[in-house]
Every structure is written in structure tokens, then in C-alpha cells.
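input
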Amino acid sequence: MKDSVDLAAAQREHWQRTYATHPGMYGQRPSEPAGPGMLKMCSLVGDLSS
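output
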């Protein structure tokens, strides 16, 4: 489980850097189709923002 948490954290860091570098490219919100998937992922992985 630790490896998957580490991978999730690394992916989150990558995307945070990517969004910060290109703020207008991806928009400010998840797309409508991405919303349910994001909620499901958050329920499985937990909040990685802390």
C-alpha cells in the first residue's frame, strides 16, 4: 500500500507543477466526465493535499 500512496503523491506533485507552469491549458475545474472519477479516486486514495 505504501508504494501506491508514494506513487499517488508523486503523480499529484507532478500535476501540481504542470498546472502551475501552464495554468490556462487545463482549466480551473475537472471536466464533467472527470468529476465522478475524481470523487471515486478520492474515496479510494484519501486526501493527499496534506
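quick obs: The chain has a mean pLDDT of 82.
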